[in-house]
Amino acid sequence: MSDLRLALPGFPVNSCKDGSYVLEVAPELVDLAYFRDIHAWSRIQGPAERARALRPVLDLFHADGPLQCCAPSTFTSERSLLEEEWRQAWLDCLKADLATSDLRAVLEDTRRLQTRWPGDQDLFALRVEALAGSRDAQIVKLEVEEWVERWGPPNASLRASLNFWTGSRVTGRRPDGRGSLPRVPRQLPRRLQDLTGRAEQLKEIKRALASGRRTRRRVLILSGLPGVGKTALVLAAVPRFEKRSFPDGTLYADLHGYTAGRAEHADPGDVLDGFLHALGVEPVPVSLNDKISTYRSALAERSVLVVLDNARDTGQLLPLLPGSGTSAAIVTSRNALRGVCDNEEALSMHITPLDDSDAAALLREAVSAELRAKHSSWIDQLIDELVEVCEGLPLALSILAGRIRHRPLSDLRLLVAQVRDHSVRLDALDGFHTDHKGVRVAFYCSYRELSDSSAVLLQQLAVHPGPSISWEAVLALGPAAGIPDPGRAADELIAASLLGRTGERLTLHALIRDYARELAEGLDEDVRTRTEQQICAHALQQVWTFDLALTEGRDLPVPCRPDLRVHAPQTEREAMEHMDQEYPTASAVLGLARKRGDWLTTWLLSMALVTYQWRRHRYAEAARNLVEVLAASQELTNAVERAMTHRMIAGSYLNMNKLDAAAGQLRSAIALTEHLPTPEGRTSLALSLNMLAVVRRKQGLPDEARGHFLRSLAAFQELDDRLGTGNALNGIARLELDREAPEEALNHAQAARDVFATTSDLSSQANVFITLGDIHVSNGDLRQAVDDYSCAVDLYRSLDYWARESRALRLLASAQLRTGKRSEVRAALRRARALEALAREGDATQHIRPGSR
Hints:
Blueprint (H helix, E strand, L loop, with lengths): L1 H6 L5 E3 L5 E3 L7 H12 L4 H12 L17 H24 L3 H14 L4 H14 L2 H15 L4 H11 L5 E2 L6 E2 L17 H11 L8 E6 L6 H8 L4 H4 L4 E5 L13 H11 L9 H13 L4 E5 L4 H4 L10 E6 L4 H6 L2 E5 L5 H9 L4 H6 L1 H15 L3 H12 L6 H9 L4 H4 L10 H9 L4 H12 L5 E2 H11 L4 H10 L4 E3 L2 E3 L2 H11 L4 H26 L21 H25 L2 H17 L3 H14 L6 H17 L3 H15 L5 H20 L3 H18 L2 H17 L3 H15 L5 H18 L2 H18 L2 H17 L3 H23 L9
Helix pairs in contact: 2-3, 3-4, 4-5, 4-6, 5-6, 6-8, 9-10, 12-13, 16-18, 16-19, 18-20, 23-24, 23-25, 23-26, 24-27, 27-28, 27-29, 28-29, 29-30, 30-31, 31-32, 31-33, 32-33, 33-34, 33-35, 34-35, 35-36, 35-37, 36-37, 37-38, 38-39, 39-40
């Protein structure tokens, strides 16, 4: 006891009257007490929680067994009892791992624990179950034979388990003794490579098929573009649950719906012959209907998973689906198989390409650890470039991974150069062997199944510069190629997984676009020309429709094309939201029009984009587009239109605070219309003078600014132009505020507000509320300033005008702070910062040439 006191200082060891001793210590500090509490608690938990709880406390035991600090001859019986507690806890943990399909953990633990408890039959039974779910059946049988040879015949319980999990019987008893079992086929082919990523999809498949027995049909259809990894996903998912959820077997058939080098698809009758033989049904009927009936009867009382890989269409698939009962089917196909999804109580799961992180991980595994250590940053850069080109397509990534493994490091740059070159990219993504044809052939297997109309539409979509296209724009392509029903052709492409859908937009995967471009080289030249014309005409009509919703009184000579269907927004916010989606495509079409030398469309589209570009802080893009087109459009536009172009360039420069450049453009605009007597010429002159006044005010030239404002105001009033009048009055109000004349400023601002109230121009109304707020701040009327700024914020928000709303929010926050409304200040600043981040994203893309993305 003295030794014990020395070993545990701070814990009292007290003697009792009967001569015994009591060690006073909190139970939670005793490993054994803590272990027993957790073990008891884990038994009422689910498998996943049980495994998580047990693993840490199992490690409380010494690797060589309990009570290692005691002499071997002492506590013999206690040592044996503790050893058995430890073993039982391990068995509980391993069973929980099996229930959650964590087979790798079971295999690793049982290998290690067999050295601790050699010949333990309970432990080996669990190992065999894990082996059967993750290894080839022959390998499992060899390990069983080795175990029996070393440890002797198994007991009755282990023998039943071995028979069940190794499939070594035609019929037999279940391990739990519940009746006999028919023949149990396990036909799933062996997985050739590990799966990268897909954790969520694996969980979804398990939830859909292994979520308990139901009497209604369970069919899960996995669809997706060619090479997206549908079969690999199934081969990885099914072994995780097939033996527990489908103890009566797994049937597998490749239906060869899209197999290279094979013209014929698998015949349902032939597939049923194989399935019935595997289920032990003899004799097999002759007619297809009898085969279907017999097949569904054979599955009715069993729980079998039917894996139907690479299905072509509904007609091929329907005879092979199980009937009602506890059996289920999982189907892979490039075809969406809508008929099955609509009528057969099936679940549909669309498989998308890998995200960038998983794609990079797949390629990184192909590089040796030594090379990664020596050239990590360079390797990462090359991998990022390859990932960007492949857009997450597993087939392309796997081919590249194979090439990386077999190429020296010095050749990787050449590989990157090949996949970045559109003309040879698909050559670089050809497979190595005849059984691995590569990306081009994978796409061909889908293309050959298309109707003529869909095949031509796919080629037209390759002519479209992308990156996405609206449904209305797809319909506009049909007449250019004589497609009678382009909507139906597009539906076929979507169903075949060759045309994707992102929100309301349709997209082509980058590699499918490359393949379609190769096909489009054979497109009739007249069809190509008409297609390009339709693409440009539709983009212009759509952007112009959005622009008209954003700007009151905008006038551009855009040709009327009632034959082109476009989306007509109901509000300015809706117009901005749709333009957010349309803008990358419109910029790409602008590049196409410029390449074709269609300068009228280039000018009109550049002008129609300006309002959106300004509201999204894309001033540099707006200026660059218009400067490029200005000289080329001289012969296509009149003086008023050229002046408007100069004015839009000036407005872009003004927003970028390039005041001298803005003033130069405005002088050019004024010179063009200075002496034009027409109302259009006078209006253009007034607009240019008003903007020049704004520029001069910012340059610190108030007298010149006032002269331009007054001159433009007189012209607007003479022309009865309310918007112009309001803008001129608002500009004069700002000048009066600058010279600290708040009463005069207030009079002009209120007059501008009253004029704007008679228009539908919300942006101008918001602008004058900012002026009114500034005036009331200068007067010390902070409450009224808060009201004015709040009105401006609400108006800009309704317009989805981020840059202006963020500025108004900061003014509002400043006024609120001075009135003591601190909570409102925080809310205003949070939103202002979020909007400014969005505006910065717009700035970050302005170095990209329109049409290059």
